Amino acid sequence: MNFLKNVCNSLIKPVLPVNSSHQLNLLSSVQQVRGTKKYVRPLRIRYPMWFLRQNRAKTIENLTKDNKAFIQEVICDKFGLENIEGGTPTCVSLSPLKSDPAVYTEKWRPGTRRVGLIVRKIGVYPMWQKDGTQIATTLFQVADNHVIKYIPPNEFEPVRKRYRVKQREMGAVIVGADSTDPQKFTKEYCGLFDAAGVLPKNKLCRFIVSPEAALQAGTPLYASHFRVGDIVDIRGKTISRGFQGVVRRWGFRGQPKTHGSTKTHNRPGNIGGGGEKARVWPGKKLPGHMGNKWRLLKGQEIVRINTKYNVIYIRGQASPGNVGDLMYMFDTILPLSYFCDFI
User: Most buried residue, 14, 140, 165, 276, by most Cβ within 10 Å?
Assistant: First the structure.
């Protein structure tokens, strides 16, 4: 037994003396590589600039009526008087721009991409045309949109970064919707709106635009941004249906209802996981969460615009979300030659 201990100690002991500097450098340079990857791919998704802590902790401050009135006076002095534009509460000042209007020297060319709008779905409503025919339309209201910031192409970095991509020729315009009380947000989040000179927004969105379609921070956007007859795309989230089975989620027929079947009426049945693969194939239709996913509805026609209340009428049931949800509306990415025979 002692012989084995001596052998083990001789194997463990270092060849060099303990106080040797060469041994210390050698031990410090050795790293544990077992169980680690040889190459770690960098993250391809980067958080946007407004990914900050938005809501702050609500505490009981016990403010008096005079204190609350003084806070409202400070807000009005900084952002303007309270006003309701198109049924949406906001603040209006003498000038919507905090600084002098910018002058852009770029020329408009075919294929130029411009900014879109953040709209709120009102619902589906019938409309009668001049010849008496009835059509279904979906109503969207422009929810107090303002330009928050313009990012030029040389400073714009997409959130989803790809490899081996050439220098981008497009910039980005950040648009905000739904002005609210700045006391509800943190100081860091409210700092995003200092350059625009507007109230903090509940919703922020980024639109990729051409350099000649850039807008200055603080520019308001209305329903007149589009015209009757324009073709737009609408992007929003579908209605969340919760956890659903294969019958409701994917439209499966289900198992037989009679002839000896017991508690298998709505089950998917065999998923084909046997054989050599012995696994579940990616993309297999199985039970899971239904809805609450981004959907893009392309090629929708504008049939009417109400400039008083900033309401846009879209032909048909053109909306992937629920009533009251915020969505993005912008010029279509489809070629307009496809719609020449239908409009």
Answer: 140
